[in-house]
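One record is kept unedited as follows:
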Amino acid sequence: MKTKLMPLLAFLAAGTILSAANFSLGKKEVVAFVGGTDVGRAQEDGSLEAMLTLAFVRQEPVFRDMSWDADTVYRQGSVIERWRKNGFGDRVEQLGR
């Protein structure tokens, strides 16, 4: 049931965001998905990226997944428990790349 609800929730969220504000993207602008487990799992589904890509076809958006399942409100797991040798650094370092 969760799997079937995710695309619907993403669709509703994207529709609300896009209609509620003047949301725009520049040419080949990077959209970063930042967060913990929920963001990581939503990223696997791909529905939000598909909707944004369709809504901004001419802008050709680029997506970057910066989520990490170990992130909590108390600490950032990607800095502490990284599975890649040199990791990606903290949020500021990641956004600077």
User: Anything to note?
Assistant: Residues 2-96 form one domain. The two ends are 37 Å apart (CA to CA).
